[in-house]
Automatic annotation (TrEMBL), chains A, B:
<dbReference type="InterPro" id="IPR000873">
    <property type="entry name" value="AMP-dep_synth/lig_dom"/>
</dbReference>
<keyword id="KW-0067">ATP-binding</keyword>
<feature type="domain" description="AMP-binding enzyme C-terminal">
    <location>
        <begin position="399"/>
        <end position="473"/>
    </location>
</feature>
<comment type="similarity">
    <text>Belongs to the ATP-dependent AMP-binding enzyme family. MenE subfamily.</text>
</comment>
<protein>
    <recommendedName>
        <fullName>2-succinylbenzoate--CoA ligase</fullName>
        <ecNumber>6.2.1.26</ecNumber>
    </recommendedName>
</protein>
<dbReference type="InterPro" id="IPR025110">
    <property type="entry name" value="AMP-bd_C"/>
</dbReference>
<dbReference type="InterPro" id="IPR010192">
    <property type="entry name" value="MenE"/>
</dbReference>
<dbReference type="InterPro" id="IPR020845">
    <property type="entry name" value="AMP-binding_CS"/>
</dbReference>
<dbReference type="InterPro" id="IPR045851">
    <property type="entry name" value="AMP-bd_C_sf"/>
</dbReference>
<comment type="pathway">
    <text>Quinol/quinone metabolism; menaquinone biosynthesis.</text>
</comment>
<dbReference type="Pfam" id="PF00501">
    <property type="entry name" value="AMP-binding"/>
</dbReference>
<keyword id="KW-0474">Menaquinone biosynthesis</keyword>
<dbReference type="Pfam" id="PF13193">
    <property type="entry name" value="AMP-binding_C"/>
</dbReference>
<dbReference type="GO" id="GO:0008756">
    <property type="term" value="F:o-succinylbenzoate-CoA ligase activity"/>
</dbReference>
<dbReference type="InterPro" id="IPR050237">
    <property type="entry name" value="ATP-dep_AMP-bd_enzyme"/>
</dbReference>
<keyword id="KW-0547">Nucleotide-binding</keyword>
<dbReference type="InterPro" id="IPR042099">
    <property type="entry name" value="ANL_N_sf"/>
</dbReference>
Amino acid sequence: MSEIIPHWLTKQASLSPNDTALELEDGSCLTFNDLMQKSQSFAKKLASQGVDKGTKVGLFSNNCTEMVIAIHALSYLGAVGVFFNIRLTEKELSFQIKDADVSSILAADGLANQINNMNFSLQILSFADVCKLKEVNVPLATEIALDDAFTIMYTSGTTGNPKGVVHTYGNHWWSATGSALNIGIHSNDKWLAVLPLFHIGGLSLLLKSVIYGMPIYLLEKFDEQKVHHAIMNCQVTIASVVTVMLHRLIDLLGEEDYPKSFRCMLLGGGPAPKGLLEKSKDKRVPVFQSYGMTETSSQIVTLSPKDALRKLGSAGKSLFPAQLKIIDANDEGIGEIVVKGPMVTKGYYKNKQATAKSIQEGWLSTGDLGKLDEEGFLYVVDRRKDLIISGGENIYPSEIESVLSSMVGVKEVGVTGLEDLKWGEVPIAFIVLDDASVTEVEVLQYASKNLAKYKVPKKINFEAELPRNASNKLLRNKLRELMQ
Amino acid sequence: MSEIIPHWLTKQASLSPNDTALELEDGSCLTFNDLMQKSQSFAKKLASQGVDKGTKVGLFSNNCTEMVIAIHALSYLGAVGVFFNIRLTEKELSFQIKDADVSSILAADGLANQINNMNFSLQILSFADVCKLKEVNVPLATEIALDDAFTIMYTSGTTGNPKGVVHTYGNHWWSATGSALNIGIHSNDKWLAVLPLFHIGGLSLLLKSVIYGMPIYLLEKFDEQKVHHAIMNCQVTIASVVTVMLHRLIDLLGEEDYPKSFRCMLLGGGPAPKGLLEKSKDKRVPVFQSYGMTETSSQIVTLSPKDALRKLGSAGKSLFPAQLKIIDANDEGIGEIVVKGPMVTKGYYKNKQATAKSIQEGWLSTGDLGKLDEEGFLYVVDRRKDLIISGGENIYPSEIESVLSSMVGVKEVGVTGLEDLKWGEVPIAFIVLDDASVTEVEVLQYASKNLAKYKVPKKINFEAELPRNASNKLLRNKLRELMQ
């Protein structure tokens, strides 16, 4: 039976009307009452365009206040938000619009032209357009049924077209409470949102905000100086980042003693190089590694505060309401990570086949490889699809990346496999340097000293930057294109 | 669809194996791993007696470690615990045993004789008896389906027989997380359990313990010196008490500065006299009033930390996942309190009629009267059944109790109505004195100065003690018996 709770924003506006919901870099704030008023008004305006329960509305926006308001407005109408990555090509967008039955798109004012130029045959409204509409007096949701769908986000499969991950309100609820049971809820918490809101890692923070009654410090995009400023001067207590952000931050953070109230740097977006974690430890930055994906409504495995230093390099244990297993493990104990829990999606939008393939009896096959230590802590090894098999040996790109990125002068590393007549596949590395004088020979010498011979990359490519997605995650499958 | 989570004790034992789950007054402790091991062993022994999924097992015990172990053991077997008040008469017990289809009873070692002497025709095992049994290798639950029933507790209706309130695992889960969203989760939290575990206020603490990974400091029963000691010297941060306990405590607490880490005295069990709350405020005891009942799996309305002083006397707002309304309000805004939320029972055991009468479309009629102030804070006025109607005027016993208990020399007060030919009903008061020299005339003078004439009790009865239930709640319906 679907559980019913009061509408979460209305409820928080009732409990904490004058508390800050949203804080922006210019210092301006929105209280929960402000946010409710604005979201309800936005909903009533949107209703004039026929947006209703179950309507699929596309969102094409960078991080901004209006995006936050639009998201909550959709919930007041019972509409489903389809979150587009703003870097998508016309072809990719076109597929998602059609696949998700999107009937209209809401776009950030600065991005409306970009999407209007694509000539999609559906209504596109900028946030400013919506504000000019007249409110229609429709009944707004006062309750939330946790089994109802709220958001759809597309995720690339290993093969075929992207799949629309459907998140129910319940998925988001359990994700938020599962995280709270891990890192606690403190009355002074303020979470830094620098990940894109169109990705699950960003969106999940907005929902934590209304569920916990906690302010979000919202940045339009990642900038290490701004993040540093937020932590040092704006009472941010928790920040969610991905590896490359931490990398860029770490040189700024910890040079002075940062505020004691900063208690958690939540690290997601793939395995982190051990060297980076050790550097963080030395600088006393409280990094907690986590593991999750769109299908798990953000983190589902997180290192807890008490284990953070003792289990450096581990992603931790599954959150309290979740379960985790390693299946089909090899001799080293490495196998596929499968997870289960109420924060796991019930399936892909209108794609029973993909759902049945990925989720069996509640267990989601993640496509990631990992192993558990004797105490049950998870070490994520790599994406299964990124595994390099060379002369019958398994080579995990992240291991090589981790080693090379600890070399002085090396800033970022990406490793992938290249077809090879003799070995089947061989590893090759793509490196961004801090210090332009570093040579291929030096890198190979360093690699030989720290890696078994078959793991030493057969070629080193120096690059100006590595391919990353809008969340700054490394796209290994695009590395090879750099060689063309 | 019923959500599935991992078995909560097994999960907490995996996350925090060596953290304290239970601390006793003699200083001995059980870790979560200990508690899991002992509960699983107890379950395997109990399985030898045919206890299985859905079996109703009675529990007849005071607060002790074995009771905690037995409760978790039942969950490993999927059995349902029927919690008996150990003060019940043979007749009352007999009714509950039959009504709840109880097939066997587990009794505290010190209480086994008492219940054995009652000659019920079912198996009675003391905890020591169970320990002597051989383990049977049955599969224990590894997961919990939140819609499954876990506990049954009987509650007296205004008329007719007691009704068995069924709590699902989900009811307990939502109660625990709802409370966490109100008062937060701190890593140093330790909750004092002094309420009986056979009442919902006590049991709910055990489940918070496994869900939060938080130690419980367990006392066999209330003793103000022991509670004072626990707060002053044993790092207790939160304590759940009822009014009479707070009354007895307040003179001890605050004479010295108590530890800063003590952050919440959660007060339940009926409206508190304003004088007591003010005394607590003066002594800087952080009292948060709350409101709840067996049907709501403990508190469903609680004053939040930020409003505690500003809204003295209010029970607060409904917890984040819950809703509250006042229906059929009179001119003063006083009407029946109705509540809704995932912590509210789905109904009474095998009693569709009572369920249908109490719960309509998810809304539970509480039988309590209350009103909301302009900001939506609840003030509980009284039990509807305790309302005295005198010459057409509504008189709330708790108001008179609150006034009289602020008189110097008065320790406890209970007020009820007496039939009266002229007025229909008139209020009468029962008083326990601190100072034996106080006279009826003095009390009536004090009452006349502070209450409208029709509210002044028509008779003052001095008593050695007032009738209270096992949770120390005043039993107003038994006051009249004192006059016989």
